[in-house]
Amino acid sequence: MGKRVALVLAGCGVFDGSEIHEASAALVQLSRAGAEVKIFAPNIEQRDVVNHLKGSPTEEKRNVLVESARLARGNIQDLTELKAAEFDAVIFPGGFGVAKNLCSWAVDGKNCTVNEHVSSTLQAFHSAKKPIGLCCISPVLAAKVFPGCEVTVGQDKNVDGRFPDAETASAIAELGCKHICKNVNESHVDKANKIVTTCAFMCKAPLHEIFDGIGTMVQEVLKLA
Description:
By secondary structure, the protein is of the alpha/beta class. It has a single domain (4-224), classed as Class I glutamine amidotransferase (GATase) domain (Rossmann fold), CATH 3.40.50.880. It is built from eight helices and eleven strands. The strands form three sheets. The chain has a seven-stranded mixed beta sheet. It has a two-stranded antiparallel sheet with strand order 3-4. A two-stranded parallel ribbon has the order 8-9. α1 (20-32) crosses α8 (207-224). The protein starts with a strand and ends with a helix. The relative contact order is 0.17.
C-alpha cells in the first residue's frame, strides 16, 4: 500500500501563490512512487494578487483555497480538515504564496508570523515523528516553527549569480537554525527532525534540474515515512 501524503498549497502562481512547476513536480514524483495524495490549503484571503504578465499587484481580492483548487483540479480541502493521524507525511511546495499567505516572511523576514493552521499542521506532524518536505522558500516555515532544525534554501552566497536570494540562508541562521548548502538537484535531510528540504526555484537553473531536486526531496520524505 502506498504512503499517504498531504500536500499543502498557498494559492496558484509563483508571485502570489504556490509555484505551479514545484507543485506539479511533487505530485508527479508522488504519483510515480504510488503515494496516495490529498491536497489542502488555508481558507483565507491572499495577501495580494499579482498580475503575472506585468509582475505588478492588482486591486483584486482572491481566496487561497479557491485559487489552490485550480492546481488541485478541484479536489482539495480546507487546511483545518487535515489530520496528521491520517497521513504518513506532509509536503509544502514553494512560491511567494508561502511567504505571503502561509506566513508573513515576504514582509517581516525572520520576524514573521506563521498562519496558525500552518503552524499547527507542522507541529502535529513533527510531534508524531512524521516527515515534513519543503522546497524553495517554504523551508523558512520550519526554521520559524522549529528553532534548531536544519534546512537548505540552496547556497548562502550568490554563486555565479544563480542564487539571488542567498541572504535567506543568513536569516535562517539568525533564527537559530543550521543552513546546509546544497545544489539545486540535491536535498537535505534533517534526520533528527525528519525535515527534508530542497532549494528548487531559489536557484536559477534549468527546469529539469529543479524537478530532479524535488524528486530527491520526495524520495527522502517517503523513505522516512
